[in-house]
Amino acid sequence: MIRVIKKDVTRFLGSELKKWYVISSEFEIGVMKMDILFNDLQTFLLNILLVFSFFFIYLRYVERKVHRLANEFLITLIAGISIILCLSFTINLQNGHMFDLRQVPFIVGALYGGRRVAVILFIILTVYRFYLDGAGFYGSLAVHSLLLVSLWFIIPSFNRTSILKKRVVLAIITSSLGVLIMVLVIILFFPKLVNLQYFLFFSIFLIVQSIGTVLIVHFIEKERSNTALAKELRRLEKLKTVSEIAASISHEVRNPLTVTKGFIQLMRDPDLTEKQKELYINFSLEELDRAERTITDYLTFAKPSLHNIEILDVNKEIDYIIKVVNPFALLNNVHIDVQKDDDLSIVGEGEKLHQCLINIIKNGIESMPEGGKMSIHLKEKNGKAAISIRDTGVGMNEEQIERLGTPFYTTKDKGTGLGTMVVYSIIKAMRGDIKVESEVGKGTCFILSFPLAVEND
What we know:
Number of strands: 9
Strand content: 5-15%
Order of helices and strands: HHEEHHHHHHEHEEHEEHHEE
Radius of gyration: 39 Å
EC number: 2.7.13.3
Organism: Halalkalibacter nanhaiisediminis
InterPro entries: HATPase_C_sf, HATPase_dom, His_kinase_dom, HisK_dim/P_dom, HisK_dim/P_sf, Sig_transdc_His_kin-like_C, Sig_transdc_His_kinase_LytS_TM
Main location: membrane
Number of helices: 12
Helix content: 55-70%
Membrane topology: Multi-pass membrane protein
Distance between the termini: 116 Å
Structural class: alpha+beta
Largest sheet: 5 strands, mixed
């Protein structure tokens, strides 16, 4: 009885162990398959990343900046390197058959480079595939020969259309055609590879390659569209600026000319006294001077070049400017405090520097209608002469600070905005920098930095 029980127990344990072994083996096989699938997916994603990176660099830094032939050469180089890298990171199934996304750079390079580029890329692909050897070389040759023929007829249609959807559709058709040709070649020449597992693999391969091709084509078209849009916006901005300048010149110059014309007409009156004629002549000359100053400001902004370049002692220049603006400051109940370092020299044009600093100081004084204090500090900072001009006026918010120096922007009730534009233009011409700090109700500080003069200057 005991022997029978032992036999039954042994038989039961043996059968359970066999079941457990089968289950564990199936589990291990399933885990291995999952690992293989995950690794294959990683390889595909690496291929897409390599292709995308090279085309991104090309679009961002190279395209449309070189001659057409040079552009074709660069597309060939980028697509060729991408093909070689894709062939270097492949999925090896069996009997030397290699699968990767080499068709993606081949298709994209051919579509954007043209027929000549397509032929060269085909040669690169074929030669490198032959160098790698493997049983699938002749199959690869047949697949890509047929794909080249397909591209030969698709490229003209791709170049004729500029619509994003049509280009994406053509890219999908070409990519799908490449995979279908591959499947057809395998069925005809390598029937041993045909099974359900391989058809599943090719289905995934078709999806991944199509998505990769579409993503790259979509990125290229969007990048080109954004570049064209930015170029058009810059052109429109220039036209807008030109129209604003024309309108402003017309307004600013027409007013003094109209006044002058009126006084000249009045001078025709034979009953005018000499005193009245003298008065009209003075008014006319003042208005003509005002028109001349406006035109000079425009020319300074349009062409901020320096003519009488010399070594400027910044201390002496500031002393001169203070003498010029001090009466205006006293008239507006503004006290000017000056602090200076000795022996700071810069390279520039004295008159332009005067124009620049006087403009800033005058604006600062006008921003203190109830009077106040203006501080002008000169010091050396990081190898530069730094001039800070601080007032206790009404101040500006961030939006107003950002718009300073732009055409026709002014914070004053009366003004053309030309003065600040000229300031920015002069500072740029003298290789200087300008920084503005301001707070509403507390005042504004302009910090001008100019490179110090050295012996070479």
